[in-house]
């Protein structure tokens, strides 16, 4: 069973600490379970199966499919299977924790940029860069004028 616990964790691309956090235990506990240093108690078996949608028969004896066939969508598993990093997963989760109005604004921003004509986007980017440089130049001229006035005095 200890090897199957490690297999679950590695399949989900989770560190021991992250895996343990989802179960409410430390990474050290997971390390001890994976290495067979401690007995895997019944509540832990049930918890692993529930949290990670693993079939109990598979976890206990390695029989049948690993995941339950009545599997619900798991964002963690979805991104892990696609090689996402923990940061990428955190970003996706943080997005869904945003206030709905802010999420709507973010969606509108991306919708506008994804559906816009690339030439229009490039023209807008050039315009913004021009305005930035013009503003920087004005600030630089004002500073130079102040410094020049001081030298003359």
Please explain how this structure is put together.
- Helices cover 74% and strands 0% of the residues.
- With 153 residues, the protein is mainly alpha-helical.
- It starts with a helix and ends with a helix.
Number of helices: 9
Q: Helix coverage percent of residues?
A: over 70%
Model regions low in confidence, pLDDT < 50 over at least 5 residues:
none
* Secondary-structure content class: mainly alpha
Task: Describe the main β-sheet briefly.
Answer: none
Rg calc: 27 Å
Averaged pLDDT = 85
For the secondary structure, the number of strands is 0
Shape, per Cα inertia axes = elongated
Whole-Å distance between the termini? 85 Å
Q: What is the ordering of alpha helices and beta strands? A: HHHHHHHHH
β-strand percent reads: under 5%
